[in-house]
Design goal:
7 helices; mainly alpha; Arc Repressor Mutant, subunit A; single chain; about 10% strand
């Protein structure tokens, strides 16, 4: 039996329209059958939709948790796997506002902006700390950091450390 606040939140989520189709499918299953484990959610969706590949739905649970629409209610043996697992349930929170969409272009521009700020900090610090190896220029270091960060997808701080320590060219 659901409390009225959970029912109100469920209705608000459905009306809001900003929870996409796959998230709504997971939210729906948890609301009507929860608390459920990840495997139970996937099994329930497979049963109700007839889909065979439902493994992508486990990601929706963490997305719903970030939106504060579900929470880890308890740990118990899963009815599908038999192992102890977290069972998820709906919260009484309704949607407040849709999460902001951030385009890849915006993420890239933000990363470039942070990289330029680090380059400036590095340039300001290098005379005092003698960080730059004699065979490298600021531009060379910046290029190496940028390659590690953008191409090899290293965290920015790690990329700076690697380059400054001379672990990689």
């Amino acid at each position: 039996m659901h409390r009225q606040t959970s029912i109100d939140a469920y209705d608000a989520v459905k009306r809001s329209g900003w929870v996409n189709k796959s998230r709504m499918a997971v939210y729906d299953v948890i609301f009507h059958r929860g608390p459920l484990t990840q495997s139970e959610i996937e099994a329930e969706i497979a049963l109700t939709t007839g889909r065979k590949n439902v493994t992508s739905f486990h990601k929706r649970v963490s997305e719903l948790e970030k939106l504060k629409l579900v929470y880890p209610a308890l740990t118990r043996p899963c009815r599908v796997t038999g192992r102890n697992a977290i069972a998820w349930d709906v919260t009484s929170n309704g949607p407040t506002q849709p999460p902001p969409h951030v385009s890849w272009r915006k993420k890239f521009e933000d990363a470039e902006r942070r990289l330029k700020a680090l380059e400036q900090q590095l340039a300001a610090m290098s005379p005092q700390m003698d960080l730059i190896p004699p065979d490298k220029s600021i531009d060379g270091l910046a290029h190496d950091i940028q390659r590690l960060f953008l191409v090899e997808r290293k965290p920015l701080v790690e990329a700076v450390r690697i380059v400054l320590r001379g672990d990689q060219p």
